[in-house]
Structure formats: structure tokens, C-alpha cells
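thought: fold this chain, then report.
action: predict
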Amino acid sequence: MTAKLFLHGVPDSPAIWRPLLDVLDLGDTPVAVPALLGFTAPLPAGFPATKEAYADWAIGQAEVLFAAHGPIDIVGHDWGALIAQRVAMLRPDLIRSWAISNAVIDPDYRGHRVARIWNTPILGELFMALSKPAKLAEGLAAQGMPAAIAAEEAEQWKNKDKRRAILKLYRSAKGLSFAHDWALDIGKLPSNGALIWGADDPYVKLTVAQRYAATTGTPLTVVDGAGHWAIAERPAEVAAALHRFWAAL
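observation:
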């Protein structure tokens, strides 16, 4: 059994994987669904919450699974997708496969509007200070996230360390610009990769995934009628895509 490592994104927590894990039916397969540091608990002392720090942390998570079970399947969504790709770039020896949803390390992508706000000093802090959990829950649910999970994610928004971590993370990536660092290593990615995309994602347009797939030859599954959180909106379709992908390895 190949162990699975699932990495969530922003502003999420491991709860976002629950609908998918329920239908994946992985049985006795070893599965790890960790929370990004600072997202469900206080930031550890000295942890800088940069993209490099989170990538190093994720490598540590992968190393633990690898030591016990051999090469792993890593799955990421949103920032978890970017971090999953970085892990696969830096430590292909740990990875049997990588599969990512609704975010990709792309040299031409420059981030969505909220990413640019979070990247801007003072403006980002104002955004965080004025963001209320109830409005966040309402907004996430309106964009397709199951209402119960949206409420759970919004409750965690009260954690000031989470909001601090998000600002640090986005600023370490200049919003969401990877042209001059991580994107330079796309050629280091193992060939066993896959993209799964909600067709109506307002943050990372389907055209970004299509361009990446055409440039790299990475297979792309498009989930029609789903947005950024396709993993929770249409979990059965995402699960079917993952099972097809893993079965072909």
C-alpha cells in the first residue's frame, strides 16, 4: 500500500479534505493529513512561515511516511498544491506520484486580487483586521465549499497566528510569483504527476492549468461545474480521477 500525504491550502485546514477522503475509501492505506503550521494551532516559536519553511516542513512530513512505507503519493490543493510540487522537485526520491488541484507552479501566473492585497504591507494587515469569520464562512460557502466546512474554516480565522502566517507566506512568494525561483525547477519534477481542476475557479483560471498541461505534458482532469474547492464540491469526481491516476502508475 502506497502511503498518501494530503496538503491543504489557504485559508483552509485539513477539514477541507474530509469530503474527498470519505469517498476515496482508502481502507488500510496509511494516510497523513497534517495542518500547515500555525493554521490550526499557534505558530511554533521561530518558524518564519515562508514558502521555503513550509516546503521544508512538508519534506519532513514526507520523510516520515517514506521511512515507514516507501515512496508516497502526495496530493495538494491551493497552497498545498504548490508545496506538494516543491517537495516533488526537491525530493523526488520520496515520491511515487504527485497530484495537485487548482494551483500550480507556473512562471506566468501573477496571483489573484486577494493574493496581491495580502502581499501589500499595511493593506494586508487591514484586510485581516477587517475580515470577520461570519462573512468568511458566507463567502466560502457561496463559492462552493460545503457550508459545514466553511463554518469550521471560518471559526479558525479567529486564530491570529493563522492570519499572520498567511501574510508571511504570501509575501515570501511576492503574492504568487514563482518565475524567478520555484518555476525554474519545473524540469526537476518527477514525470508521474497529474492536475485536477475545477473549471470555474475564479482564483486560478482553468487556462493556467491548460497552459501548464500543454507545456509539460502533465495530464489534466477538468471538473465541470466546480470552482476552486472542487475537492470538496465534487469529491466523487476528484476521487475517480485520483484512482484512475494511481491505478495507471
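thought: worth noting. Strands lie at 4-7, 31-32, 72-77, 95-101, 193-198, 220-223.
final: C-alpha cells above.
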